[in-house]
Amino acid sequence: MIWVKLRRAFSPRRNRAALRRQLRRAVGDRRGVAAVEFAMILPAMLAVYFGVAEVAQGVMANRKVTHLNRTLADLTAQYGAISPADIDTVFDAALAMMAPFPSGSTQMVIASVVIDSAGQAKICWSAQRNATAPGRGSNVTLPTDLVVPNTSLIMAKASYEFEPAVGYLLTGTIRIGDRPIYMRPRIGKIGGTGKIEQVERTGSPSTPMCPGF
């Protein structure tokens, strides 16, 4: 009797039939499919999400630097004479444009560019915060339409070291900015050997008006 039962249990025909039933049941069972599919696409979804977030942060930081740069030039151009204390005020006011980004790596430069009668543009004075400013008398290459003899410009240039939160290990910091912007003085003083309207730098050390570098 036991032998008969064993023969029936291990009968190839019965086993094949049972396997076919289990296979049909497994093929028709859709439980867990969604979880498997989600697990497969989750890495790609996370990569896209964080990539979009980082790009958005980078674009926002770029816009902040652009606004900061314009603020530097605009505020400086409104002075007839600017002192070291005024320059610090301009830097502080412009730096507020970077919020909510950390501002410690922001680099700022402002300078007065004077164009002489021959159309040669040079730095009359400059100031910087966390950056390297060009020295007095340094030549400046201006866009052609800005080269007007016997005039002056306020030049501002800012940059920012953007650190991606996720891709830092792959890209490191990304430098944003470093594009100068120029504005004409609003209420400049007439001075220098060419009697050119410009923003005068006062205080210590004193900086004579230009030309006369």
**Individual helix count:** 5
Q: Looking at the structure, what is the overall shape?
A: rod-shaped
Residue-averaged pLDDT: 83
The end-to-end span amounts to 118 Å
Structural class: alpha+beta
Beta-strand content estimate: 15-25%
Helical percentage? 40-55%
Radius of gyration, in Å, reads: 35 Å
Uncertain regions spanning at least 5 consecutive residues: 2-6
What is the total domain count? 1
Strand elements, count: 9
Topology:
Blueprint: H1 2-9, H2 12-28, H3 33-77, E1 81-82, H4 84-95, E2 107-115, E3 121-129, E4 151-162, H5 168-171, E5 174-177, E6 181-183, E7 189-191, E8 196-198, E9 200-201
Parallel strand pairs: 1-9
Antiparallel strand pairs: 2-3, 2-4, 4-5, 4-6, 7-8
Helix pairs in contact: 3-4
List the defining traits of the structure above.
213 residues; single chain; 5-stranded antiparallel β-sheet; alpha+beta
